[in-house]
Amino acid sequence: MHLGDATLGAGTRSGVELMPNRRGQVASRCAFTLLELLVVISIITILLSLLLPSLREFREHARTVACQSHMGAIGKSLINYALDLDSFPITSDYTGKPVSWRYGGWSGSNPGLWKTVAGGTYYVRTRDRPLSVYMYRGAELSDDAPLPAFRCPSDRRSNGVGPIGIGAGDMPAFENYGTSYHLNWHWFDDQTELPCVPAAQNRKIERVRRGQRIWWKYMQQNVSRFVTLLEDPAQRALTNREQIEGNHRKYSKHNFAFLDGHAEYLYADTQYLHQRDWTVVDETPPYKDWRVD
Known about the structure:
Blueprint: H1 2-30, H2 34-85, E1 91-92, E2 98-99, H3 132-135, H4 173-177, E3 181-183, H5 186-190, H6 204-220, E4 227-231, H7 232-240, E5 253-258, E6 263-267
Antiparallel strand pairs: 1-2, 3-4, 4-5, 5-6
């Protein structure tokens, strides 16, 4: 018995001693050291830093394509308007420039804001805007209905004049004007004010007549180069002859819609009023190569 007990005791002691060692060996093989954890975290951080810019670029590319789709649809409506009514879908902004909108857009959470500015002088109901009926045929539009097709997905700030007490840059162009896109009025307003002609002869009615001639001329030729719609930053850039970042976070790159109905994302040296891929004015003299010196 003593022997057996001793043997059993030895075996028990041996078993008790061996089992923790095996568990410890397994645990040591499965555990991570602090150094290994730091290496893994570093690798994940590096991968994220490489992937995030690509993801942002992909998302902005998708927004650029959506913007082009909106501009193409509006551009086709603009052409249909002109063909149906033998006129242009224009009104006037606060300076009298012919444009496709008037100040008094859908102002975000306060759509009635422009009704109170200057006694509502610049307020135009959504259903009375020139292109609304062509973009939303058969739809019942309320006075202040926001029309999503007129909004660029990357519209962040307005480059125009904001309501009293609110800077234009404090709201997207869509909320300020009711659209992120502008009619190209350079062919119509700037260009039709002929140089070296007395002011009395540069009346608006004469500009309209000359503008119509230019429009119909380009309906017959260069339809894929003649710009009809501009994103808000491009409009500002061409007006001031400056280079700025576009809606889609690229310097001097903007979406344009053309007279043939297509839209394209292009580099635009906006010191010029026309380039190889686009033009916003008649290219015949005296306007060919027109630029600011």
